[in-house]
Write a structure and sequence with these properties.
The chain is mostly helical. The protein has one domain. It is globular. The protein starts with 5 loop residues before the first helix and ends in a 13-residue tail after the last helix. The mean pLDDT is 92.
């Protein structure tokens, strides 16, 4: 059994990778779902307002919430 790459580990934790934003085949979340997810993130104590980044997973949340397959590492959405 081979060790998982960092991208594979990242995708397991977050459901997506940053490169999925550039993949035209990646399913996008609709605007309402993305807005609900971001609102949830903004009320979380792990959300860094200055950079709009999650301190748990390191993702830039206005981008991550747009991907349908994305998941919150804290299982909030």
């Amino acid at each position: 059994m081979t060790a998982k790459s960092r991208w594979e580990q990242y995708k397991e934790k977050n459901g997506v990778t940053p490169l999925d934003l550039f993949n035209p085949n990646s399913t996008r979340a609709d605007a309402d779902l993305a807005s609900q997810r971001l609102t949830t993130c903004e009320s979380c104590d792990k959300f860094l307002k200055a950079t709009k980044q999650c301190l748990e997973c390191g993702c830039i949340m206005p981008l991550k919430v747009r991907l349908a397959a994305a998941t919150c590492p804290l299982r909030k959405w």
